[in-house]
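Quick one:
INPUT:
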């Protein structure tokens, strides 16, 4: 069905309770490659719930994008559609266009909270629509994080909305201060999907082909988390609490087994980023990327 802009924007926020456990946190970290070389470095801060209360386990802030979405072994893939008031589209047409996250305080290793989700905007790109979803999460102690995701829906434009902002962006005109290479594994998308995103685009070759891809692709949010982990490990002294926000656009796809190369330009408490795939001539993977960090 066409997008009904007025209905989508007028709908009240959908509110639900979410919860997560240390097991969910551990799975998320493993799905980003933590402990890949456990014989040399098991990365216990990401992979081991040290102590009865999980002391010593830290939580990457990007865990926020999967918190409360864990699946169990008996779960079945959801219907191939994205449905909410005023919006009902086929997953074959859906791509994750961008993600922004602000963490208001460190995420507990286990907890429960209230998630409020609304359609913040819908942009008409002519041949596509961009649905902007806003997520606000708070627990008994107050706000935990705020996220915004941009969902690119092919073939759903032309409904009469505005085109949305298109801010000019380019990397600084100088060599990057750091270049971080993050290899991925051929089976990484199969592991990452257990965080809750069962879109067959990331597992089923036939589905990927029907969506116009040669092979299943890595989740954009997996690339997002891998880059966040690289920043924490190599530039923030391994302290995940120093990464307070990360905003990106997904500029291209990555096939599991390829490398994410992240160029970083330092600008005070901001890191300007660009990520590419060196195996394909540095084709862009993430653009318009900025990380907010603390000293």
């Amino acid at each position: 069905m066409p997008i009904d802009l007025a209905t989508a924007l007028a709908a009240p926020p959908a509110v639900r309770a979410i919860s997560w456990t240390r097991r969910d946190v551990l799975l998320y970290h493993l799905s980003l490659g933590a402990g890949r070389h456990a014989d040399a470095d098991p990365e216990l801060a990401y992979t081991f719930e040290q102590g009865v209360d999980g002391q010593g386990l830290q939580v990457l802030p990007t865990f926020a994008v999967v918190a409360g979405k864990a699946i169990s072994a008996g779960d079945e893939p959801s219907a191939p559609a994205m449905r909410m008031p005023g919006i009902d589209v086929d997953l074959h047409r859906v791509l994750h266009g961008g993600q922004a996250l602000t963490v208001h305080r460190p995420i507990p290793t286990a907890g429960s909270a209230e998630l409020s989700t609304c359609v913040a905007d819908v942009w008409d790109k002519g041949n596509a629509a961009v649905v902007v979803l806003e997520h606000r999460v708070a627990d008994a102690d107050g706000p935990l994080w705020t996220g915004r995701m941009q969902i690119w829906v092919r073939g759903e434009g032309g409904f009469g909305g505005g085109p949305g902002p298109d801010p000019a962006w380019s990397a600084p005109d100088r060599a990057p201060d750091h270049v971080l290479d993050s290899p991925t594994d051929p089976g990484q998308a199969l592991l990452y999907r257990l965080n809750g995103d069962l879109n067959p685009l990331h597992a089923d070759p036939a589905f990927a082909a029907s969506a116009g891809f040669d092979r299943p692709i890595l989740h954009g949010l997996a690339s997002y988390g891998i880059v966040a982990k690289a920043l924490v490990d190599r530039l923030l002294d391994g302290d995940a609490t120093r990464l307070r926000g990360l905003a990106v656009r997904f500029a291209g796809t990555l096939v599991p087994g390829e490398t994410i190369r992240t160029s970083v330009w330092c600008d005070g408490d901001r890191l300007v980023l660009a990520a590419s795939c060196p195996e394909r001539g540095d084709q862009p993977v993430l653009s318009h990327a900025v990380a907010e960090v603390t000293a």
